Amino acid sequence: MGDNSPSYTVDEALVVMGFGNFQILVLAYAGMGWVSEAMEMMLLSFVGPAVQSKWGLSSGEESLITSTVFAGMLIGAYSWGIVSDKHGRRKGFLITAMVTAMAGFLSAFSPNYIFLIVLRCLVGIGLGGGPVLSSWFLEFIPAPNRGTWMVVFSAFWTLGTIFEASLAWFVMPTLGWRWLLALSSLPSSLLLLFYKVAPESPRYLCLKGRTTDAVNILEKIARMNGSKLPVGTLVADHQIELHKIDNALEDTHLLSPRRIEDVPPDKMDSTVGGISSLLMLLSPKLVKSTLLLWIVFFGNAFSYYGLVLLTSELSAGHSKCMPHKLQSEKSQNVSYRDVFITSFAELPGLFLAAATVDKLGRKFSMSAMFFLSCIFLLPLAFHQPEGLTTWLLFGARICITATFTVVYIYAPEIYPTSIRTTGVGIASSVGRIGGILCPLVAVSLVHGCHQTASVLLFVTVALISGVCVLLFPFETKGRDLKDSVSQNRVTP
């Protein structure tokens, strides 16, 4: 890379070309995957009570239907992150879409409880690839408006939850839970249908040394957006970093004037395996961000999915303690109206995230919403009228949706391209542990007449998560994405 030869990075090219038709198509494709994941998660609040009534399950067995999905997601989120960092984003979400679509459809034909548990675990493994799609989409967005467009991407999750609540309202009373499972698996099939036209991330290709392929995709973006690429040669961020280090060393005469050879991209930290990538996430430059991010993902998943399950449980007659026999009779009477109403809480949650994420920053947006959710949840520690309960859950769902949206923007931004999907995938896996545990709280404690303890635990988790957000070492608003760990700078 000569001193006088013009060059540009992927970030600089994306800024020049802007957000246009190409990114809209990428948004639609990635968004369909987000709709699929939201539908598969949302249906758990309907299928659990229905299967419990049909097969005479205990509350623990009902909770296991949800927990096993999260257990699968824990495995999948870690595995698919490593696969996509090593073999490409496209291969990562191809495998996840295949697993989700097939296992989701087959679970509708489960002859017994064991088959249902196994197939829903496989669905969870497929759903664990969600972070791959979000990271893939993120790498096509210009830095200045990355936060806003990631909020728009998150809107597909809300669309999926609302659509699933509507589908359940019409399908469950007439056709039953098997039809709901089968119909909910269809969006994953659309990812397979349009897979051939989905492009690989140019940032990933550039990091792997496939500069020509990266340029071809950038040229396609320019054509579709009606713009032009910057003048010069495409270079990876790590090459610029090495060049700057080389010049600094020569200027200070700390080393001989011999030029430091550029390390080939495919020999850098992009080749790390599972254990090596985990060690890199826990390296001195990233360990604080990684550990805090794990706690926040745990708190987000625990709170979000707990609120979804609490809505169906409290509306099914468990908000007041009653004999076990009466609870079993009422467990199938989920108020689809209440679930539908609280699902719409995600819309103002998205608007709130969009209004604050690029103006106030990621950290302030997340922490404020966590603390506000505690205020909405506290009154639920005591029995409230049904209408007030619904609206308190509505308010808490707004806040947790906003925090979930922003953390999925912040998480990919703090990690370099070489371990981005691995880092987000592992954080998402930790979040799935929260998803595994929350049914035991939202279902079992409420069934056991311990609503106060259940709600106070949710409040505590949200409060700790909010404090951890304040402790994050840096803000990512407006920052360029980095390619390697050495480029991460802790700046306020």
What spatial order of strands do you see in the largest sheet? 1-2
Counting H and I runs of at least 4 residues, what is the number of helices?
22
Strand content: under 5%
Radius of gyration: 23 Å
Structural class computed from helices and strand pairing: mainly alpha
Topology order in helix (H) and strand (E) letters: EHHHHHHHHHHHHEHHHHHHHHHH
Q: Multimeric state of these chains?
A: single chain
> Mean of the pLDDT scores?
77
Helix content: over 70%
Low-confidence stretches: 240-272, 323-333
- Record field, number of beta strands: 2
End-to-end Cα distance, whole Å, is 31 Å
Shape: globular
Largest sheet geometry: 2 strands, parallel
Organism: Quillaja saponaria
InterPro entries: MFS_dom, MFS_sugar_transport-like, MFS_trans_sf, Sugar_transporter_CS
Pfam families: Sugar_tr (PF00083)
Main location: membrane
Protein model, in words:
Residues 240-272 and 323-333 have low confidence and may be disordered. The longest helix is centred in the middle third of the chain and has 32 residues, at 287-318. The chain has 22 helices and two strands. Helices cover 72% and strands 1% of the residues. The protein is globular. Strands 1-2 form a two-stranded parallel ribbon. With 492 residues, the chain is an all-alpha fold. Its main location: membrane. Residues 26-477 form the Major facilitator superfamily (MFS) profile domain. It holds the Pfam family Sugar_tr. It is found in: Membrane. This is Organic cation/carnitine transporter 7.
